[in-house]
Write a structure and sequence with these properties.
Helix content is about 25%, strand content about 30%. By secondary structure, it is of the alpha+beta class. The strands form five sheets. Strands 1, 2, 3, 5, 6, 7, 8 and 9 form an eight-stranded antiparallel beta sheet that branches. A six-stranded mixed beta sheet has the order 10-17-20-4-21-22, with helices on both faces. Strands 11, 14, 15 and 16 form a four-stranded antiparallel beta sheet that branches.
């Protein structure tokens, strides 16, 4: 699970400050306050990891990418290309990672279950290409006690040097100093690994970061319209997709999976879990994916509305069902330990269903599969006060711990954005509500009462 994130000099953020990432992290704020920029940053890192181009420091995206950021000048804060993009990520590892060294006196090992990565990236000599100024991995509980391995650019920014502490990687005799650049923004070049003794563990650090970022799944705010039928190849997709295009193949690909809502609760088939959530959100009475005919690849989604009536195709009912379906499926379809990013999951839902989404998120972080916690983490960008109020209620009821939830309010302050962590107590109360968090509800109530009194007074005259 991600523990912490910090971003500097990215779009509207001069500095986000340290963000604690909880099992459920929710970003609120006005439009253009920087919420989406945080999501785009993480998507940029993911698409860089997945890019086959090892020489590209950051994959800034294109029309086919989840995040299309243009050029470095377009996204660096203040459009000042003299600034470096800096960021830090910290996360828990699924198992203990060990680095070791051997010398004349014997061997030493350095191990940890937490990993931190920091990087600084900037333009290379103003030519538009990017270079890594510095990258560093820290394995262990904190910087003071952790094992550090880094690559740092020389003053001319064309050469890089490898360093470590307290791990001592000795250079092999006869190996020249090539000082080649890192691979992408995070990888140790093969030449440097081969040139040092006891450097094989560096590849484990790189693999840990790649696995963490590959396990990031995104459902965007604009999901696609449903189809009357879907062709399934028999393959299970990695995710439902940013617009939910693969939601039906994902449902079919998960037909043999069973999910438990939580500890000491019975597991149910995947499709039954999804159907139950559509019912609990008050959207349908029944939900089913069926082949159009036996031994056919074409499938249709059939639903029955509340109040009875025949089954009808998904395209013939309200738009909100097709919009929330990818959200529900992705929360439980994601692989164990994933980070699922949801942008405006409440879109096209009525207030009661928006409240129910908070219960969906709660169940998703507590769900189990094959007898083990799924450990799924959620990052949600939302405008829904109903969702927040239900999360507060579940904390008060003890169904969520206050540490299970991190809530941030983003706002524009001058030329930069500012992030305020909202302080939740164990009863779900927030002690530092920002002004205008969800508009001026009390002001509207008072103004309405005054207007009514004036009109009534006028009518009496």
């Amino acid at each position: 699970m991600f523990r912490r994130l910090r971003i500097q000099n990215f779009k509207c953020w001069a500095d986000t400050g340290e963000m604690r990432l909880a099992p459920i992290t929710v970003l609120f704020g006005r439009n253009s306050s920087g919420k989406t920029s945080i999501i785009r940053f993480l998507l940029m890192l993911k698409q860089t990891v997945e890019s086959p181009d090892r020489l590209r420091v950051l994959h800034l995206g294109d029309s086919a990418s989840a995040a299309d950021l243009g050029t470095y000048h377009d996204f660096v804060h203040g459009h000042d290309a003299r600034r470096d993009l800096r960021f830090e990520l910290e996360w828990d590892l699924p198992s203990r990672l060990v680095l070791s060294e051997v010398d004349e006196t014997g061997s030493r090992t350095f191990a940890g279950r937490a990993l931190r990565f920091e990087a600084a990236v900037g333009e290379a000599n103003g030519a538009g290409a990017l270079s890594v100024r510095r990258m560093e991995y820290v394995l262990g509980p904190d910087e003071a006690d952790g094992t550090r391995v880094w690559m740092c650019a020389a003053e001319d920014r064309t050469r890089h040097e490898l360093g470590s502490s307290p791990l001592a990687m000795r250079r092999r005799q006869g190996r020249p100093r090539q000082r080649v650049a890192p691979v992408k923004f995070y990888g140790f070049p093969e030449e440097e690994v081969a040139a040092h003794q006891d450097a094989g563990g560096l590849l484990d650090l790189v693999l840990a970061l790649e696995q963490r970022l590959r396990g990031l799944h995104y459902v965007g705010p604009l999901r696609g319209y449903p189809n009357r039928s879907y062709v399934w190849s028999g393959q299970a997709p990695q995710e439902v997709g940013a617009r939910g295009a693969d939601v039906v193949p994902a449902l079919l690909g998960a037909r043999d999976r069973a999910i438990s809502p939580g500890p000491r609760r019975k597991s149910v088939p995947f499709h039954e879990l999804i159907a139950r959530w559509l019912r609990e959100l008050g959207l349908v009475h029944s939900f089913e994916v069926k082949p159009l005919a036996s031994h056919r690849r074409e499938h249709e989604v059939l639903v029955r509305a509340w109040g009875g009536g025949p089954e009808v195709n998904l395209v013939d009912v309200g738009f909100g069902i097709s919009q929330v379906l990818p959200v529900i499926v992705q929360c439980f379809y994601a692989t164990r330990g994933s980070l699922v990013i949801l942008e405006q999951p409440e879109i096209h839902l009525h207030p009661s269903a928006q409240s129910g989404l908070a219960d969906l998120l709660t169940e998703a972080i507590h769900a189990r599969e094959d007898g083990e916690d799924r450990g799924v983490q959620l990052l949600v960008e939302s405008h829904s006060e109903h969702l927040l109020e239900r999360l507060q209620r579940r904390i008060a009821e003890g169904k969520l711990s206050k540490d299970d939830v991190a809530v941030y309010f983003c706002e524009q302050e001058g030329a930069a954005s500012k992030m305020t962590p909202l302080e939740l107590d164990r009863f779900g109360n927030i002690s530092n509500w920002p002004d205008g968090f969800f508009g001026d509800e009390m002001g509207d109530v008072l103004a309405r009462a005054e207007a009514e009194a004036k009109r009534r007074q006028g009518a009496l005259k």
